[in-house]
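Archive transcription. Copying these from loose printouts into the bound notebook so they stop getting lost. Printout 1 of 2:
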Amino acid sequence: MLSLCYLPTAGRLTLTVIKMRNLRAMDITGSSDPYVKVCLLCQGRRIKKKKTTVKKSTLNPVYNEALVFDIPNENIEDVTLLVKVVDYDRLGANELLGVVVIGPQVIGPGRDHWLEMLECPRRPVTQWYPLTESVPINLVTSPTRGLPPTLSCFGASST
């Protein structure tokens, strides 16, 4: 369950990771050690990333952690949030449990949630998401789709 809240006057987007349920067991103990990694993408490029704490030995973690991103109002339509749920492993590589993509160019619940957030500024909008197996290929391969070439992320246009 994720909550989005945008403050247009401050240019601040808050993504609150509330909780999850029925995650896949990744450890031999029959549980997982999940954490959430959020990447802020603008025109397909990673601008910022933030992580939650790791919740040990659970398939139903509760976080209630707010991750805040500064996004000027003029760039709010250019950004996408890539939310990865990852199983922490002390030895070896961390394993991906699933992915959620939220933003104006996304198809499905991530777009609906984003639009509702923009329609209700200064008010948190909460939604459950199903996890998908991998990052959608179009999120990575078409970073400038539909955007003017002079637009730059979080700054003046390049002149």
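Printout 2 of 2:
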Amino acid sequence: MRILSVLMVLVLSGCMSTEVIPQGPTFNYSKQHSNDKAVAYFYQFDMPGVNSCLLVGINDKYEGCIGYPGFAKVMVEPGNKEVSFTPNAPIKIANLEFEFNFEAGKEYFFVYQLVGQKSASDIEIKTQYNMLLNSTYGWYLVEKHQALEEMKELRAWHNAI
């Protein structure tokens, strides 16, 4: 019973952390990228139920962390990759993941949002129902001009992965 109690405290510590607000630089778009890799931007304004930065994993390797609200810029080798999102807690369990085929030299902009907030041009990548909030949230691929407008006030996480 004691071991179970300790495990619950460790799991909840990531969900109850107060370090969620990014303190890094404000988003600044630059088109200077490598032609042999893809560039993926992941951003969000809210992640209900998670109160720590959200680790962005590419094929099980953490490449960035997103605060609330915040963004992460990730350089990705081309090909079909598993993208996962995991609260930065002592016990790391991905709470949402999807596969995506990245092309070298291309830019991708993914936003996490309520399904009801998506625009007609947003492409659904992966959604899930949040029972606690009685709502469905998901990751959407959005057009560049929309993303650049939405991201201009967002900050990066203060510690690079």
